[in-house]
Design goal:
Number of domains: 1
Order of helices and strands: HHHHHHHHHHH
Radius of gyration: 18 Å
Mean pLDDT: 82
Distance between the termini: 19 Å
Structural class: mainly alpha
Helix content: over 70%
Number of helices: 11
Strand content: under 5%
Number of strands: 0
């Protein structure tokens, strides 16, 4: 049961990323993030009366808002990367960087890492190098060091991974007694952030009907994924739940292949497989 819930959250997370990236190809990124986050908040508020009572401390609110800022920025970078790059390259790159953040954080605090965890980090670095190879060998020139040697959206995906990793770390600092309220705080923070950016830059939050449909779908899937993940994490071993949920790029890659017909080189495919394996190792050995 726990495994099914965690795998279900992985499928929904990856599907949400796919629809978010699809929306970002039809509308500006600010509007995409704002609408998807707003939909998630509305759904969460609708189910809140049916959830157990919670006790929220000021610390929970602070970490919730920090999670909202970092998570919102991470999602924006991810959606932009998914819009301009190959989803099958972007999603695993973001996932493996996000999985490495807790490892780096623990190392900075003086925690000794297990040999298998270090092996996962090394595998992640190798996977990133392979995924970053352009799909066409004609576009690869080892003598060049500028960003044109990298696939579109790759650097954005790496930055997104850092922000998403901070998001997960921030939520982990909240208490179980707070229930879903830190996530509500996170959603409010991200909505305020991107609403303010839209006002300051004059970017419209309006989008076409097809873009609205995909944005709403992505927001709903993301919140459903959060719900499944929270349930699984509260009734089962966290290490197992996080490991299975971290396989979410698989559904993004599959949808991109089936719906968009994305093609990758054998080198990139091996990098994607390596990235997913690295996520399993890193999360599984730090849980």
């Amino acid at each position: 049961m726990i495994e099914l819930l965690a795998l279900g959250s992985a499928v929904l997370y990856g599907s949400a990323d796919f629809f978010g990236g699809l929306t970002a190809r039809r509308a500006n990124t600010i509007a995409t993030v704002f609408v998807s986050q707003f939909v998630g908040l509305v759904l969460l508020l609708l189910v809140l009366p049916f959830l157990p009572a919670a006790t929220v401390s000021s610390r929970d609110w602070v970490w919730g808002f920090v999670a909202g800022l970092s998570g919102g920025i991470g999602v924006a970078l991810l959606y932009r990367a998914l819009a301009v790059g190959a989803m099958a390259v972007v999603a695993p790159t973001t996932a493996v960087i996000a999985a490495m953040i807790p490892v780096v954080f623990a190392f900075v605090l003086g925690e000794r890492l297990r040999p298998l965890t270090l092996a996962g980090v090394v595998l992640a670095l190798v996977a990133i190098a392979l995924v970053s190879r352009p799909a066409s060998q004609r576009d690869w020139n080892p003598g060049q060091s500028n960003s044109r040697t990298l696939p579109p959206g790759f650097l954005l995906a790496m930055l997104s991974g850092v922000a998403v990793g901070i998001f997960f770390l921030s939520l982990a600092r909240t208490t179980m007694a707070a229930g879903m309220w830190p996530l509500i705080a996170a959603r409010i923070a991200s909505i305020v952030l991107f609403g303010s950016i839209a006002l300051a830059t004059g970017r419209t939050l309006r989008m076409s009907a097809p873009a609205t449909v995909t944005a709403v779908t992505g927001g709903a899937l993301d919140m459903a994924a959060n719900a499944l993940y929270m349930i699984a994490a509260r009734i089962g071993p966290l290490s197992i739940v996080v490991t299975l949920a971290s396989l979410y790029p698989a559904s993004t890659v599959l949808l991109a292949r089936v719906v968009l017909g994305e093609r990758l080189s054998l080198v990139q495919i091996s990098g994607i497989i390596g990235a997913l394996g690295a996520v399993l190792i890193i999360v599984g050995t730090t849980g």
